């Protein structure tokens, strides 16, 4: 089905389009900044808690699965360089409106759960940085204020948001290099124990394979981010040319850093202590060089790192809603753009409100660590979508386009489907059942919104399921 750009039916004018402000360097920093955020700064300890000292293994497995799926995304984003991402690909492949809508909603929710996890992690690091005794009320207030600040940046514009991403990415990279540098001091001084790095210590009721898949299901949260970039395609210069090299380079650099950081963390800090910490990398630095003044900087750097994850995920979620509203899969008002700033303000406000609601509900009700719970839910949602995308790339081989694009080797999407499904199913992934409860609740909300969307489309004369620009 062909995507067209039609004038507004009421005014006869073409709607404002998004500004192409992202080049290869900004895109690379976007990918790296999104991946190197909340996952490594907040979840390294919880991953170690599942497998012991072999914490680097789940990160490595997650990288392999992510890279296989990234190849499918590369074929699709260079073939269809538009903002809607996975939802657009699924609609082109299967043409079923409700399936398209649910995929869109699940991807959007993954961005929101990821940003929500980042906001909670921000609040934890805020308390450590300023020496505040964390409490439920104060942490919730900090997390909500933080989300409102992200809202303002997002409304300001993509150039400002991505520009801020550059600053945050450089800061979070410096924080990870600081962990590696100060950790090396402990290693040189003989205070590290590398025997822990190859020591597997899973739960007694789990086999080695199940423990690794459980940890990988959580570690996969740390590898997400590459899929956010495809939703910025309409704001990227020459996406068909720059996406393949940039995306794979970003994934590779992130994987190397993750593995090195996890090895140093386990070697310096005993696994039990690392798993119990809500700010694990701060614990690594404080253990490696106790009393060293520069160690006090890491909580502040961690705040910037998780802020970067939240910023990019909220950028993605709002652009996804914008893209799909322009394709008649969501109500038309969500595609409204500020004429001067050229930002999708209605989508920005909607996604921020949903994120704040999720933070409040889980802060009041959840018994487990919220960051791990939201991180696991994020990976659950995205792995489900990745399985479908890996099928879609094979189906869409029958749909030729009139420009050159990347083509992934056929066996990779097949392997990707099997791997993603294995990390989603409860008996092979070892996931906390509460992740399925959260995912199910969000899916139920999506079904309600689907009904609202169908009604809205009928009221405006747009047939549900039409993939056309209705701006």
Automatic annotation (TrEMBL):
Q: Name one GO molecular function term.
A: transmembrane transporter activity
- Pfam families from the xrefs? AA_permease_2
Superkingdom of origin organism: Bacteria
Q: Where are the transmembrane segments?
A: 26-43, 55-74, 94-123, 135-155, 162-188, 208-226, 247-272, 292-322, 343-364, 370-396, 408-429, 435-456
Using the UniProt record, give the first listed, main subcellular location.
Answer: membrane
One GO cellular component term: plasma membrane
The protein's UniProt keywords, in alphabetical order, are: Cell membrane, Membrane, Transmembrane, Transmembrane helix
Q: What topology does it adopt in the membrane?
A: Multi-pass membrane protein
Location in or out of the cell: Cell membrane
User: What's the name of the protein?
Assistant: Amino acid/polyamine/organocation transporter (APC superfamily)
What organism is the protein native to? Amnibacterium kyonggiense
Its taxonomic path starts at: Bacteria, Bacillati, Actinomycetota, Actinomycetes, Micrococcales
